[in-house]
Amino acid sequence: MAWYAIYTKSRMEKKVSLRLEELGIEAYCPTTKRKKQWSDRKKWVEEVLFRSYVFVNIDLEKQSGLVRRTFGVVNFVYWLHKPAVIQDAEILAIRQFLSDHLEVETIGTTAKVGDYITIESGPLTGQTAKIVGLKNKHEVRLKIESLGFELVAALAEKS
């Protein structure tokens, strides 16, 4: 069993995730809450974090056909001609990051340089991260190497 990323049809991530769960496949569709402004009100809405991506924890040989036949699934995400494997630690880091921060966004990245560090304190203790630069003291970033994304969250001001 390993985690794999699957590519879905546009705006079908949550539906695909539900369908896979109904078939007995462990699926994860990371979501974040975002405050939206309308002309007459503000409202918190749940949005998919990785557009057109859902993660599945499967035995590739036994369950890949079932995943591919699920309505809304386009295909697995490939890396070097094989379905891209997502590390358990990265899935756990995404879950932890989303539970600790509101209004998270993703930024695609192609950065190849920088130092690797191990986080020594806080909710991500033990995670390996790559330093990709410092914008300011009010932002935290977590780079997910296997996906080529960074999760970005604004830190709350302390009064």
Automatic annotation (TrEMBL):
<keyword id="KW-0889">Transcription antitermination</keyword>
<feature type="domain" description="NusG-like N-terminal">
    <location>
        <begin position="1"/>
        <end position="98"/>
    </location>
</feature>
<protein>
    <submittedName>
        <fullName>UpxY family transcription antiterminator</fullName>
    </submittedName>
</protein>
<dbReference type="InterPro" id="IPR006645">
    <property type="entry name" value="NGN-like_dom"/>
</dbReference>
<keyword id="KW-0805">Transcription regulation</keyword>
<dbReference type="InterPro" id="IPR043425">
    <property type="entry name" value="NusG-like"/>
</dbReference>
<keyword id="KW-0804">Transcription</keyword>
<dbReference type="InterPro" id="IPR036735">
    <property type="entry name" value="NGN_dom_sf"/>
</dbReference>
<dbReference type="Pfam" id="PF02357">
    <property type="entry name" value="NusG"/>
</dbReference>
